[in-house]
Amino acid sequence: MADVGIVSISGNREAQAAATTRDPRPFLGVETSLTGRRWEGPGPEEERLCEAMVQRTGLPDAVARILCRAGVAPEAAEDHLAPTLRALLPDPLELRDMERAAARLIDALDRGERIAIFGDYDVDGGASAAMMVAWLREMGHGATLYIPDRIDEGYGPNDAAMAMLARDHGLIVCVDCGTLSHGPIAAAAGADVIVLDHHLGAETLPPALAVVNPNRQDESGTLAHLCAAGVVFLLLVQVTRMLRPRGGALPDLKGFLDLVALATVADVAPLHGVNRAFVRQGLGVMAARARPGLVALADIAGLEVAPAAYHLGYVLGPRINAGGRIGRADLGARLLSATDPQEAARIAAELDRLNGERRAVEAEVRDAALAQAEARGLDAPLVWAAGAGWHPGVVGIVAARLKEATGRPAVVIGCDGGIGKGSGRSVAGVDLGAAIQRLAAEGLLLRGGGHRMAAGLTVAEDAIAPAMERLAELLARQGAGDRPARGLRIAGLITPGAATPELLERIERAGPFGQDAPAPRFALADCRVLEARRVGETHLRLALGDGTGGRLGGIAFNVGGTPLGDALEGHGGRRFHVAGRLELNHYRGRAIPQIRVEDAAPA
């Protein structure tokens, strides 16, 4: 089904172009902030569109700015603020091989065949595998869960594992992997293989019974924004449609939307189209605390409120990933499919412990990678670093940190025994997966693939430099180096007194925020620092005032010893323009507005 009530980017290009036009002048006159960035504000045309949105809808100015930036017309505003699956869910049969995959899964159930689920070790793979296991369990059918070890087996199906599973199973379902696994799928002789994936496909498909993937080369691309869990959910929708005429009880698919939401955010899938509905509806399911694994993980993470999209990406997701990064690869999928609260609590505690270890390893690699990248220059189309002994489980998250710090696509590679294993993260508008896949086809990589925003690679150590030089060239053709690396996009001004809990809740309704839909950043003009005190070693708790009685709390993370932190902490009565993202700080049952400070400049 087509999207209803949402003005798509392709369907409203004029509004999109106008809404993304920047004012050529620096916002609030900030040419170089305390973090070295130029502030970019809305241009005159965006201001005009925002004013029209406010007049026609009655929405607050801050909310209108978010909708204008997303290219939403005034008449579609209400539908955008309340995304529903009824309006946005596509027909599963839009995807090739979907009907064949659904029919084969039903046939396996009818015949009582043994089914194996082969998944990736990240959040998307774990959530997809858990969804399949849980759905089959509700259908009265068990399944074998297999997650490869990141170090010993690497990403995706391998010959030995697939051959082993094929000996005892009639059907193998590969989730979040398999699209490029020609050899391993051929090794599964005697079993049928279904691939449910979203990574970029090659010109030829593996010898599977069905390859359901919106990023196959023969697909239209209209559903390319789905993560693997979204593809799995569409399969279960189609299976439900085909089984419903038989009568009898079927699993309530709405109950699986918490897993789809978690995977969509954690895998950095673009939050537009049906993905917005997946996340919005999934957060509602998660708030009901019905899944033991997510309840246990939220509790051990100290999450005292119903999760928001931010918590999926920065609180729950990293803990689930920790198992695959530096621990047991199957812990995430086992947690998400657990039915026993005590077992879930044990796994959650182990993942929390591993996440602490991951942070320490990540910090060491991050510092070394950043120093190396800075030595090469941070204004190139590609920022990259490589080092001996860097743990392969953290190179992806370090690449994400480099991307966030520089506004450039980033690749980080860990080397061992003459082989480098790396991971990359991209920025909006730059297809990293396709470029990595081309490098592999050209022979510069031993292996490589992924999707637009993230990719993995294996490369001979002595080929790293020429491979990265070629990758930078390919990304430059996509415009990776065109935008200033240190610009800070600001949606508009707000006063401390205007940042009420009611306004922040309405801003949250304009989400969910994430990839391709960043949370809006606002600026407080000419503020006085009323309070600045250290929290821990590097964080700063603030109170900001505008001189008219308005007051807003703030938090600045990891600013200790930086020009930003030093200036705010030692303000000496000076006034500042402050930029950041508004949020509600839940404390002892109260929702208190605050700004998560990202930058500031002397006023």
Automatic annotation (TrEMBL):
GO terms for biological process: DNA recombination; DNA repair. GO terms for molecular function: 5'-3' exonuclease activity; nucleic acid binding. Residues 384-475 form the DHHA1 domain. Keywords: Coiled coil, Exonuclease, Hydrolase, Nuclease. Residues 344-371 form a coiled coil. Signal peptide: none annotated. Residues 494-599 form the RecJ OB domain. Residues 114-264 form the DDH domain. Belongs to the RecJ family. PANTHER family: SINGLE-STRANDED-DNA-SPECIFIC EXONUCLEASE RECJ. This is Single-stranded-DNA-specific exonuclease RecJ. The lineage of its organism: Bacteria, Pseudomonadati, Pseudomonadota, Alphaproteobacteria, Rhodobacterales. The gene is recJ.
